[in-house]
């Protein structure tokens, strides 16, 4: 084999390793759409605007590989006392919540068939949350607070299927679901579960512009909830759309901008939701992201940090402290 061929082979392998990292983070980033503010029960649904998109979200690499990822998410938000919020089977006068998630994820890329590449994974989340709410009893107002710290609902990704239109354009389709495995108390303000199944079909697209070191990523999904039988609360479906524009530098550093929105499709239903006219909501978030790619003992390592504060929020926790950090390694 010629020296040029050797260099080409090494360059191709390096490109594939980078792709492995991108899909590992991006697939698990979909998992980062964990409980935070949306106009569902407790104003705590699954998606967090601006947290589902990451570099290479549309890429499923062609080589079998196992990927491990750790993520940390922190949100500190509120809904003002002029709005009622369905929580603990009642309607509170506003709510304040701090939420911290630690997620450990494993993703396995299996290889390809028929021009498509396939992967699957699982995420085990741990949650710490503190919630404060006010309630009215006649003319008397009372305040309550609660705290929970436990394993959260498990997140499964049975299948991710990726297709490469070219070396610079990629798409992935996935089916994901949340299982109500966390501890749940219908009378508690803070819980480690939403007590429902949530099904999440998703599509993602990645486009590279190598000449300028630019990358553009978009991911959208629909979320369908089963009824919380403990409170008789039915969350309406949600539509989420996140986008990322990223500038990559030769030293492995990347800097960019994240945009995200969550839109409720219809009214929530149930005794409390009906009193609140369906508790319909939406929001929009925007903020910067920094990424870094390197290698440790020959194994590719990727990390990122983002801040995506709420810009507009209706019937959702409005947070100016929405932060996510990730670290991922491929074996």
TrEMBL record:
<feature type="signal peptide">
    <location>
        <begin position="1"/>
        <end position="39"/>
    </location>
</feature>
<dbReference type="InterPro" id="IPR025737">
    <property type="entry name" value="FApF"/>
</dbReference>
<keyword id="KW-0732">Signal</keyword>
<dbReference type="Pfam" id="PF13557">
    <property type="entry name" value="Phenol_MetA_deg"/>
</dbReference>
<protein>
    <submittedName>
        <fullName>Meta-pathway phenol degradation-like protein</fullName>
    </submittedName>
</protein>
């Amino acid at each position: 084999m010629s020296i040029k061929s050797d260099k080409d082979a090494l360059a191709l392998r390096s490109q594939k390793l980078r792709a492995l990292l991108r899909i590992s983070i991006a697939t698990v980033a979909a998992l980062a759409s964990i409980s935070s503010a949306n106009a569902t029960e407790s104003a705590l649904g699954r998606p967090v605007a601006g947290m589902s998109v990451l570099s290479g979200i549309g890429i499923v690499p062609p080589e079998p590989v196992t990927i491990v990822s750790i993520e940390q998410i922190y949100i500190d938000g509120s809904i003002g006392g002029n709005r009622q919020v369905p929580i603990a089977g009642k309607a509170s006068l506003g709510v304040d919540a701090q939420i911290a998630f630690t997620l450990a994820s494993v993703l396995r890329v299996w290889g390809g068939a028929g021009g498509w590449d396939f992967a699957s994974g699982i995420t085990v989340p741990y949650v710490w949350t503190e919630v404060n709410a006010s309630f009215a009893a006649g003319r008397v107002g009372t305040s309550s607070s609660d705290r929970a710290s436990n394993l959260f609902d498990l997140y499964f990704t049975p299948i991710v299927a990726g297709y490469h239109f070219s070396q610079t354009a990629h798409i992935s389709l996935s089916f994901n679901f949340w299982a109500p495995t966390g501890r749940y108390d219908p009378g508690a303000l803070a819980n480690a579960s939403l007590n429902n199944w949530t099904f999440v079909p998703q599509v993602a697209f990645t486009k590279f512009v190598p000449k300028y070191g630019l990358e553009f990523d978009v991911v959208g999904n629909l979320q369908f909830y089963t009824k919380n039988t403990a409170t008789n609360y039915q969350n309406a479906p949600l539509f989420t759309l996140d986008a990322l524009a990223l500038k990559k530098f030769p030293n492995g550093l990347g800097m960019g901008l994240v945009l995200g929105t969550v839109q409720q499709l219809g009214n929530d239903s149930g005794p409390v939701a009906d009193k609140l006219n369906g508790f319909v909501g939406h929001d929009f978030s925007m903020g910067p992201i920094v990424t870094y790619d390197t290698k440790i003992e020959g194994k590719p390592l990727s990390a990122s940090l983002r801040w995506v504060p709420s810009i507009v929020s209706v019937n959702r926790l409005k947070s100016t402290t929405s932060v996510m950090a990730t670290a991922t390694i491929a074996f």
